[in-house]
Design goal:
Elements lengths: L1 H39 L3 H7 L12 H7 L6 H12 L1 H19 L5 H11 L4 H15 L5 H25 L4 H8 L4 H12 L1 H17 L2 H6 L8 H6 L9 H21 L1 H14 L1
Helix pairs in contact: 1-14, 3-14, 4-8, 4-11, 5-8, 5-11, 6-8, 8-11, 8-15, 9-10, 11-14, 11-15
């Protein structure tokens, strides 16, 4: 009895320590975002003099947001439109194509299957800088440099490898009895995938979509190389160019950064349930 009570006390202390550590890490992780938000809602001069952490007699204003939204020629509103034009198809296309490929890797046997999947895994480890020169030459020959279809094609191809890996692991944990029963009833492989597997895979598909959308939305390097015309710049490019020649207005840049974070954050909050379920499936098999 005494040993049992002591064990419960030790476990309780462990839980408290783990919670304290978790809250400590969360606070440290959130600190830069809190600082960014405070800089965005206060006048630049006040932040320089007092520091963003000092809120005594602080002045809060939305001027930085209003200025960033219509900042000429790198307005956030224009960046929103261009980023959506790129991010939406660059999410739908690779998720759809990679889901077909992942289902093939998960359910069917074909020559060189293991080697092809190994190549897919290796492609995930390549840094973007290695492929940028051949991609630039390829897009130039195709006449797709400085075009939205060009950058959508690049992001779609770049996202295929990890989405195939992600979705294959998700398909692997789905029960196969329903598919086998449908096959006995005469359903084709495509019908089984479309009518049975796809609805059951909704958490994984939405989870992959959220991740791909977030990475494309936050991307900067590919856009820096392949989008040259300022009118086609996405939001990440515009924020980088909001700095002035002689003075960097950090309040303006902070407001633009908050605008840029708002969309992926909203998508995550909207699809959080599927996102977590998809990751649980991936972690269980991966």
């Amino acid at each position: 009895m005494l040993a049992s009570r002591r064990l419960r006390q030790v476990l309780r202390v462990d839980v408290v320590l783990i919670n304290l550590l978790a809250w400590g890490f969360a606070l440290v992780w959130l600190l830069p975002f809190i600082g960014l938000f405070m800089v965005s809602v206060r006048p630049y001069g006040e932040v320089i003099v007092k520091g963003w952490w000092n809120i005594v007699d602080a002045t809060f204003t939305m001027d930085n947001y209003i200025k960033a939204w219509s900042y000429d020629p790198y307005s956030v509103s224009g960046g929103y439109i261009n980023s959506l034009i790129v991010a939406l198809p660059a999410t739908v296309i690779p998720v759809a194509a990679a889901s077909f490929a992942a289902y093939g890797f998960s359910r069917f046997s074909f020559p060189l299957k293991s080697y092809l999947f190994l190549v897919t895994i290796l492609l995930m480890a390549l840094p973007q800088q290695i492929v940028v020169v051949p991609l630039f030459l390829l897009l130039k020959n195709l006449g797709l440099i400085n075009t939205f279809p060009g950058i959508i094609l690049v992001h779609s191809a770049w996202g295929m490898a990890w989405i195939i890996f992600f979705m294959k692991n998700f398909f692997d944990i789905l029960p196969r009895e329903v598919e086998e029963a449908a096959r006995v009833d005469g359903a084709s492989d495509f019908r089984i995938f479309y009518k049975i597997v796809l609805p059951m895979s909704l958490p994984g598909i939405l989870s992959a979509s959220v991740l791909q959308f977030t990475w494309v939305w936050s991307s900067f390097f590919f856009e820096l190389i392949f989008l040259i015309d300022p009118s086609k710049w996405v939001i990440t490019q515009r924020i980088a160019n909001m700095k002035g020649t002689y003075l960097v207005d950090w309040g303006l840049i902070a407001a633009g950064s908050v605008f840029a974070m708002a969309v992926p954050l909203a998508v995550y909050m909207l699809l959080q349930r599927y996102y977590i379920r998809g990751f649980v499936g991936w972690a269980a098999k991966g």
